[in-house]
């Protein structure tokens, strides 16, 4: 188990009562400190978390994954943590992949690590594969960085330089990546496993959330022209 005071695990959760306790227990086998943000759950998630040795933050009503992440980041900063490793509470991620993140963060503490799923796996939903390729393409257009997976929630964020975004739902994770790249934060991928159990509850709304992400990509492309590209070029010209 990692006992250091500088890394914590953050799990945003909304109505995942059937899976969250197992995910938390497995995480505690690798990292001493875990923060769970209960984003207005109404299905017994709070009862499932009762008695577990975690720091629990509760939103009275559902505010969205982006808002849950920001609450978790704020709590981690207040507690003095330097890095936050995020993963989902619906059972799709393997906490057993945490040691690879812990090792990578200790070796490169100022790098943002993004999990890379095997998008050719037999159980990978077709819409997830398409959406990820779509997102990967626009991320490269906006930043010049090629990543194999820009949509997974299994990540390690360096808090000191992490940009703060006000987006409240799934598109917040994309914005965090793009603005981090523009700030010059190194971004690397780590292979992770993924599964989609029968009892998994997903709150991604294919039409609404894909539309929000598409609109965000349009805005980010415009910002890349007037802010992202110039800032990147200036940073490289100055040798940073």
Report on the architecture of this protein.
There is one protein chain. Helix 5 runs parallel beside helix 6, helix 5 runs parallel beside helix 7 and helix 6 packs parallel to helix 7. The chain has seven helices and seven strands. The radius of gyration is 17 Å and the shape is globular. The model has no long low-confidence stretch (mean pLDDT 90). Strands 3-2-1-4-6-5-7 form a seven-stranded mixed beta sheet, with helices on both faces. With 240 residues, the chain is of the alpha/beta class.
SSE map:
Layout: E1 7-13, H1 20-28, E2 34-39, H2 45-49, E3 55-59, H3 65-78, E4 83-86, H4 98-107, E5 112-116, H5 126-143, E6 155-158, H6 171-182, E7 187-191, H7 206-237
Parallel strand pairs: 1-2, 1-4, 2-3, 5-7
Antiparallel strand pairs: 4-6, 5-6
Helix pairs in contact: 5-6, 5-7, 6-7
Helices, by number, come to 7
Q: Which CATH class is shown?
A: Alpha Beta
Radius of gyration: 17 Å
How does the helix and strand content classify structurally? alpha/beta
Tell me the total number of β-strands.
Answer: 7
In CATH, the topology is named Spore Coat Polysaccharide Biosynthesis Protein SpsA, Chain A
In the sheet with the most strands, the strands line up as 3-2-1-4-6-5-7
Going by CATH, the homologous superfamily would be: Spore Coat Polysaccharide Biosynthesis Protein SpsA, Chain A
Largest sheet: 7 strands, mixed
Number of domains: 1
How big a fraction of the residues is strand?
15-25%
Q: What is the helical fraction, as a range of percent?
A: 40-55%
Indicate the low-confidence ranges by residue numbers: none
| CATH architecture descriptor text | Alpha-Beta Complex
């Amino acid at each position: 188990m990692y006992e250091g005071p500088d890394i914590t695990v953050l799990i945003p959760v909304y109505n995942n009562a059937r899976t969250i306790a197992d995910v938390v227990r497995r995480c505690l086998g690798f990292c001493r400190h875990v923060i769970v943000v209960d984003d207005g759950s109404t299905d017994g998630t709070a009862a499932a978390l009762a008695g577990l040795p975690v720091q629990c933050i509760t939103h009275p009503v559902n505010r969205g994954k982006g808002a849950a992440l920001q609450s978790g980041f704020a709590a981690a900063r207040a507690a003095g943590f330097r890095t936050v490793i995020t993963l989902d509470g619906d059972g799709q991620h393997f906490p057993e992949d945490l040691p690879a993140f812990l090792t990578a963060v200790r070796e490169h503490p100022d790098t943002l690590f993004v999990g890379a799923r095997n998008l050719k796996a037999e159980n990978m939903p077709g819409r997830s594969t398409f959406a990820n390729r779509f997102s990967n393409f626009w991320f490269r257009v906006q930043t010049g960085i090629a990543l194999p997976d820009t949509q997974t929630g299994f990540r390690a964020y360096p808090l000191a330089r992490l940009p703060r975004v006000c987006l409240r739902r799934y598109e917040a994770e994309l914005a965090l990546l793009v603005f981090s790249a523009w700030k010059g934060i190194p971004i690397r991928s780590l292979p992770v496993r993924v599964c989609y159990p029968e009892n998994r509850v997903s709150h991604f709304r294919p039409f609404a959330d894909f539309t929000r992400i598409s609109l965000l990509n349009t805005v980010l492309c415009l910002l890349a022209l007037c802010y992202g590209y110039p800032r990147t070029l200036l940073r490289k010209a100055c040798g940073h």
